[in-house]
Amino acid sequence: MSANDGISIIAKIAFMTLFGCMVLSTGAYISQCSHKEPLDTLSQDSIFRMANTRIVDINVKVTSYQPTIAQCDSSPFITASGDHIKDYSYGVWCAISKDLLYTKVNFGDSIYLVLDSVVRVLVVKDIVQGSKHIDILEPIDMKFKDMPQGFGKIIRIIHK
Hints:
Blueprint: H1 3-19, H2 44-51, E1 53-65, E2 93-97, E3 110-115, E4 118-128, E5 133-137, E6 150-158
């Protein structure tokens, strides 16, 4: 057994523990698993993300916002983290309330949010008013009735 085999075994155990799935030696998944990269080809970045993952249980209010002056400030396409909103940001980036920012989550961290029985992976890039509140960035042309909202739960935080 080489040193790489030992690292591979440790990575697989960490993966199964963190992502709540069991994997057969063939690489087949037994239960639901959010990570679909074959275990034998886990990248160093994937292993790093697993090592920086925290399982949490935080109930939050979930709303959506659009990058407009009415809903943001005079520079709606620049987030509080300093990042510029691009087309790929919609539905992926979110704002988080100050009571969670820096105490539980930092800019650039990914969060797993359960809303209406659907797990969404969001990246924290902005700040929203309120307490235990997440605001999901949506495109300007999206209708309000189609935007995600309600009460959800943060179940996992992956620190950048």
